[in-house]
C-alpha cells in the first residue's frame, strides 16, 4: 500500500519512531497533528464537519458526546468500524469487550477500536513527600502543607473529590444517568473544591500544562496522567513519582476512530492494525508510559518500567481491580459538569 | 488655428451659479487673459472650455464646432493646471511625450519630439532628469512643452505662475509671452494678478461673481474701465460718489461730497444719474497754490508713506473721504507735513464718470 | 446610483466594476453578513433538559444493543456447544471483567446440555424483550427529538447574566481592561510627549526604532517573554534568590497580576503611537508661548498639551481597551487559577462546551461592550472615526 | 539650554533633576520594553532545557536551533502560515484598494457611513471576527481551516491596507488624472500609467504589513483555523506551560527578522527623506542660481571695464 | 519702561554662528525692527531676548539688569510668535487671560481684564468665540492682547504679519503702530519685508548672516545705506561697479563700465578704492536731449512694463549691464519704443558710492 494518513492524536502518543517503522512496513506516510483534550478534538472535528483527518483518538467514554453532536448537527462525525478489516486476535479481548461498556458502539455498531488505557492518579515530588499504593488517598493532595503547590485537572479533580466523598463510587456512577444525582454529586464536590482552592497552583488541561506545573511552577503534588507522570519520572531521575490511590485511580481508554469525512480509509485501517499490534502497541507503551491494548505489548517494556509499574499498582497489580472507569458521557452530562468546573475555575 | 466662442454660457453647481451668461470670442493666436478675484468663476470657464465641466446652458464652439458631448481627451485644447500636474514618477521626456504615448507613437518618435520640445523650452539634454530635480521655473516650462506636444490649437493656463516667487514670476512671464509669440498657439490665461494680466495679454476679460465685466485690451481697461468694479479692481483709484448735474462735450459734471468735479463721460450718463467719479492716484498731483487745474479738492495730509521708490500721500477730504496720491520719490516734500492742508488737482480727462454700481 | 455614474465618468466601466464589486464583497460578504449570522446563531437555543432526555434515551438504546450483541454471541456459542453435546468451552461473557494482561477466558466447564438449553431459552426470551425495549425507545425518541429542536430565544443572552460563574468574569474582564488601559496611558503619556517634543530629531528616529521593534514582535512572543520572567523558577525569582532578597520563590503569577502585566506590555505601544502622533502635531511654539506667559511645566501639560492630545489619547485608549478585552493569547498563556478572561469562556463555549449559540451570544455581548466603550470615548473626547483610524 | 554657563546655584539641583528626569524615565521605559525579550533570547542559547530559562546560564549551545529545524510539525505549520499569508496579502490589497478608491471619491454622507463600516473590523476584537467568519462559512458548508482563517484575517487586514491607500490617495493630486485625460489617455491608461505607479510604494508596504499581520495573528486565527494549525498557533500551544528552548530559538529567529526588517525599513525611510530633501534643496538652489546668475552678470559686467 | 541692551552678543549652534557680535541698544517705548533675509538670525536674537536661548558670549540687559539665568517666564518680555501660537482649544478670552490664570488671578478678574483688552483691540464682546472663528487679522490682535495682558515692558513680534494677505497686512500694520503708540510699550519687530520695516519703525536694524549691517531710522537707511548689502537689500538700486578716481566736496568720481560718474562719498572712500555706485530707479529720469545733468548713461530700451500706476523702463547699457528706471504713469512715453536709444540721467546727490562688498 502507499499514500498517506492524517492522524489527530493526543500529545506524546505516537513517536517519530513509530511513524517511521509504520512507513517502512507499509509505505504509508503518517501526518500527525496533536490535541490536548477530548473536547478539543470533538469540537474541532465538529467545526470541520468531520473532515481533515483519517484517524482520531478520543477517549472511548467521550464517544457518546460524538454521537450526540453528530445527531444535533445532522452530520455523523464518525463512521462505523468494519470489524472484519481488523487483524483478528491481536487486541486483548477483555479490553475489546470493556470498550463496549464505555460507549464504543452506537446502536450496536462499533465506532472506536481500543488503543490504550491509562489512569489518572497522584503525582508527587518524592523529595517533599512519599506516597505508596497501599496508603495513598486522593485526600493526600489536599493537605494544608501543600497549599499553593498542587496541580489538578479541573474535570478529573471534581470527579476524584466526588469519588473520595462517595467512597464506593456508586453515586458517581448514577450521576451519569440522572441529572438530579449529578447536581447533587457535583455541588458537594464543588463545595469541597472551593474550600480547598487556595491549595491549587495550576489548573492543568493538557499534558504540556501538567509537565510545566511540576517543572516550571514548582508544584509538589497533584493529579496526573500516568504516562505524563512516568515521563517526568524518567526525566527527573525519580524525583517526580506517581501512584494509584486506594479509592481507585480514574481510568480511561482511548480509541481509534475513523471520522466520517476521512479520505484515506484503507490506510487508516492499516495504521489501526499496526497500532494495535504487539509491535506498535509496545512502541507506544515505551514512548508514552501508557498501556497498550495489544496482547503482548508489555513485553517491550524494560525492567525499570516493570519496576515502576509495581510501585504504582502493587507488585501483582492489586490496585488494578480497584480502578474507577470513566463512564460514557452524554452531552448534557459534560455540559453540566463543565458548569461546575467553570465555577470552580473562576471563583 | 481655431477661434473659440462662448455663446451665452452659464454653469450652475446646484443652486449656485458659477458662471453667468458669458459671451465672448477669442481669436486664434491671441494671448487672452481672464482676470478676477478669487472664486469669480475663472477656473470654471477654463474647465468648460477644456471639457471637464459641461455648461448648464449655452454653447461652446472651437473652430466653429459645437463641443457639447466631446470629452477632454478629444478636444484640441491642452490645459496647464494651476499646480502644473506634472507626473512625478516619469522623467522629463516621458512627461512631455505622454500625450504622444497614448496616441500610440513609437518610443523613438516620442523621444525625438520630446527632444525638439526640450530645445524649444531651452532645456536641451535634460530629458532624463526626474521632474522633482527641476526648479520651479523649469517645471513650468516642461508643463508647457507637455501641453504643446499634442499640438493643441489652444493652450489653457490656470494661474500657472501663482506658486512662484516674485523674481521667478517676472522671469516666467517673459518666457511665456515669448513662447506664445514663437508658436502662435492661442493662449488662454487665468490670473488674479492684474500686473500679470496687463503686461502679458493681447486682451483681458475682467470677471466678477461669475459674470464678465469688461473685455478689452490692457491699456483700454486701465484707461477706460467700463464699470465701477473694473475701475476699482484694476489698479488703484480714488472713487468719489455723486450725481450728474451737467453733461457737455463728452464730459460730465458731478456734484460730489468733495465739490463739483468734471470727468470724461464715456458711458453717456445723463443729468440726474447717480454716478461715481474715478481718478487714479498717479494722475493726481499736489497743486501749487497758484495753479488752476480743472478739478481741485481740498484735503488735509494724514500720512506720508515712504515705500521704496514711491511716496504715497494719504489725505482726507473735508467730509471724511480718503484720497491717495502717488508721487515718485524725487520731489521736494518738505511742505507735506502731517495735518498740512493741501489742494489736490487733476485734469478732467484724467478722471472718468461711471454709473454707480458695485465696486471691488 | 449617482455615485456609480460619477465614478464611472472618472474611471471608466472596468475600474468602476472592480471597485463596487470589491467593496460589496468585503462589506457585505465579510463584515456585515457574518456578524448577522453570528447574531442569528446566538439566538438559537435548545432546551438542555430535552436534549438530555434525547441523549439518555439514545444511550439506553445503545446499552440495549450492547447487551443484545453479547446475548447473541453467547447464544451462538451455546448452540455450538449443544451441537457438540455439552462441551466445556462456553465463555461466560467477559463483560465486567477487566484483565489487561494475560488470558481472560474463564471457561465455564462442565455445563450439561440441559443447563445449556435452559440458558439458551432464557437468552432467547431476553433477546425478544430487548427488541421490544428498543422499539419502544425509538418510538419515544421521535417525540423527545421534536422537543429538543433548537428555537429562536433570547435565552443565550439571559444566560450570561443569570450564570453566576460567567457574569462576574465578564465584569472582571471589562474592569481589568479598563485598568490595563489606564496603566498604559499613564506609562505612555510621558514617553509619547518626550518623543514628540523633547527629543532631538536623531534621537527620535533611534527611539522610534526602539519602539517599532517590540511593536513588530509577535504578541505571543511578547507574552511568552513574560512567562519566562514571571514563572516560579523564572528569571525574576532566580535573580531574587541569587541576590539573597528572598529564599522562597515569589508567586508572581497568582491572581490577575501576571495577565495585567502581560497585557500592559503587549498593548502599550498601541497607546504610545496615537498619542505621539497627536502630540507631534502640537506647535512647539504653543508650549513656549505658555512658558513665556509664565506657566509652570505641569500646568502647560494640563492646559495646553493634554487638551491637544485628546484625540490621540482617545484612540490609544480605544485600541488598548479593545485589544485587552478581546485578548485570548495573554490570559491563556499567563493566566493563573483565578484569572479567567471572558474570551476564554467564549473559546470554551466553542471548543470545549460545543455550544456555539451561547458562544456567539457571548461574543456579541463583547462586541457591543467594545462599541459602547468606543462611543463613550468618542463622545467624551469629541473625536470622530477619522481620527481613530490613522 | 543645557550648555548655558550662567546657571545660578540655587536653581542648580532642581534644574539638574528636571533636565535628567525625562531621560531617566525613557531609559527605564526602554529597559522595560527590551528586558523580557532579551532574557527570552538568552534562554535559547542556554543548555538548560526544562524549563527554558536565562538564569542560571549553564552553558552555550545551538542545539535548540537544530531541534527546531528538524521539528516536522512546526515546519508544516510554517508552510500553512505562508499559504494563509500570501492569500491574505492578495485579498487584502484587492479589497483595501477598492475601498480606498471608493471612499476617496465618494461625497459627504455616504462616505462617512461606508468609512465607518470598513474600518469597524479594526475596532472589533479579533476573536469576534474569527467567530463570525467561522459561523458564517460553517453554515455555508465550509468548515474551519486555512481558507476560513485567511478570510477572517483579511476582514480586518484589508482595513489596514485601505487606510494606507487612503492616506496615499489623499496626497494624490487629482489634477494628474485630469492632465492625463486632457492629453488624450483613456480611463484604463490613466489608471495604469498614473494611479498605479503612484500607489506602488503603498502596495509594497501594505502588502508587507498585511503579511506580517497575518503571520503573527493569533486571536482571530485560533477560532477560524479549525483542525489546521499555523506557526503562531503552534507557538502559543508550545509556549503555554512547558515550552522547550525550541520555542526560544524560534523567538530568536522571529525577533532577529523583525529587527532586520525594522532597521531596513528605517534606513529606507531615511534614505527617502534625505532624497526628497536633497531634491527640494537642489530645486531651490537652481532657482537661486538663476537669480544670482543675473546679479553676478551685472557685477561681472561692471568689473570688466 | 525698560531699555534693552545687547552687548557684543554671539550665539553659536555647534560650529555654526547664528548671531555674531551684536551690540545695540533699544530705547524704552521705541518701535524697533530687525530686517534681513531668511536665516540671517533675526528669530535667534529675539529668542535670546525673551530667554528661550542663552547667548554663547556677551550680555543681554533689560532695564540695566543682566538677564543671564533668568527663564522666559521671569522676564518682562512677551513674545508673539510668527504663527501666533494661540491656544486653539481655548476661547478668545481664555487665551488672553492665560498669563493671568497662571498667575493665580480669580476667574472674575481674568475675565474683567480680558474684556478690557478686547475693547482695546477693538473686538469687544467677542471673548466667547473660539480662536478658529476669528479672521487672520482678529487672531493677530488677540495674540497681541494675550501678550499685553501680563503687562510686559517689551513686546517681541516675530514676523507677525507674514501669513496675512496684502490687504490685511496693510491694515494690520496701521493697527500695530496704533497699539504701540497707545500703550507706549517697547515693540521689537522682526520682518523680512522691507516695506513693513520702513513704514512702521522708529528705527531699523538690517541684518545679514548673523551680523548687524546698519542700525538707523528708515529714512536714513533708504537714503544713506551704510553698505552695499543694505543698498541692494532695501529697495531697488542700480549698481555700477568701478573704482574711485577722484574725491572732492563730499563727492567721489568713479570710473565705471558706463562711464565716469559722480556720487556722494559718505563713507569717505579714497582714490583707487574699489567701489560701487548705487542709484535708485526712481531717482533716475530719461534725460531730454538738451539736458545736461551731472551723470548721464547711454542705454537702449529693452522693455517697458506698464504695471498699474507705474511704468518700469528696462534698459541695457552699451556693455550689457542693465538699468531700471521707475516713472509714474503720467508722462508721455510715446518715444520710448523698444530698441530706442535713451540717455538716462541722475544727479550726483541721488547716487551714493560705497565700498565694494557683498550685495544682497
Ligand atoms: N464642483 C463644484 N461644486 C460647487 N461649487 C463649485 C464647484 N467648483 C467650483 N465651485 C464654486 O464656483 C465658484 C467659481 O469657482 P472657480 O474655481 O471657477 O473660481 P476661480 O475664479 O478659479 O477662483 P480662484 O482664483 O480662487 O481659483 C466658486 O465660488 C466655487 O466655490
Ligand atoms: N536650534 C538650532 N540649531 C542649529 N542651527 C539653528 C538652530 N536654530 C536656528 N539655526 C540656524 O541659525 C540661523 C538663523 O536662524 P533664525 O531662525 O534666527 O533665522 P531668521 O533670520 O529668523 O530667518 P527667517 O526669516 O527664515 O525666520 C539659520 O541658519 C538657522 O538654520
Ligand atoms: Mg481657480
Ligand atoms: Mg525667523
From TrEMBL, chains B, E:
Transmembrane segments: none
Top-rank taxon: Bacteria
InterPro entries named in the record: AAA+_ATPase (IPR003593), ABC_SmlMolc_Importer (IPR050093), ABC_transporter-like_ATP-bd (IPR003439), ABC_transporter-like_CS (IPR017871), Mo/tungstate-bd_C_term_dom (IPR008995), P-loop_NTPase (IPR027417), Transp-assoc_OB_typ2 (IPR013611)
Any one GO molecular function term: ATP binding
Entry keyword set: ATP-binding, Nucleotide-binding, Transport
Keyword check for Methyltransferase: no
Pfam families reported for this sequence: ABC_tran, TOBE_2
Protein name: ABC transporter ATP-binding protein
Provenance organism: Lutimaribacter marinistellae
From TrEMBL, chain C:
Sequence intervals crossing the membrane: 12-33, 174-197, 226-245, 257-276, 313-334, 361-381
InterPro entries according to UniProt: MetI-like (IPR000515), MetI-like_sf (IPR035906)
Gene3D superfamilies noted in UniProt: MetI-like (1.10.3720.10)
Subcellular location: Cell membrane
Keyword Cytoplasm: no
Domain ABC transmembrane type-1: 170-377
Any matching Pfam family: BPD_transp_1
UniProt KW Transmembrane helix keyword: yes
Membrane topology, as annotated: Multi-pass membrane protein
Keywords: Cell membrane, Membrane, Transmembrane, Transmembrane helix, Transport
Main location: membrane
Family per similarity comment: Belongs to the binding-protein-dependent transport system permease family. CysTW subfamily.
Protein name from the UniProt record: ABC transporter permease
From TrEMBL, chain D:
Stored Pfam families: BPD_transp_1
ABC transmembrane type-1 domain segment(s): 78-265
Subcellular location: Cell membrane
Residue ranges of the TM segments: 21-45, 74-102, 114-137, 143-166, 198-215, 247-267
Keywords (A to Z) from UniProt: Cell membrane, Membrane, Transmembrane, Transmembrane helix, Transport
Membrane association type: Multi-pass membrane protein
PROSITE patterns tied to this protein: ABC_TM1
Matching CDD domains: TM_PBP2 (cd06261)
Main localization (coarse): membrane
Family per record: Belongs to the binding-protein-dependent transport system permease family. CysTW subfamily.
Protein name per the record: ABC transporter permease
Organism encoding this protein: Lutimaribacter marinistellae
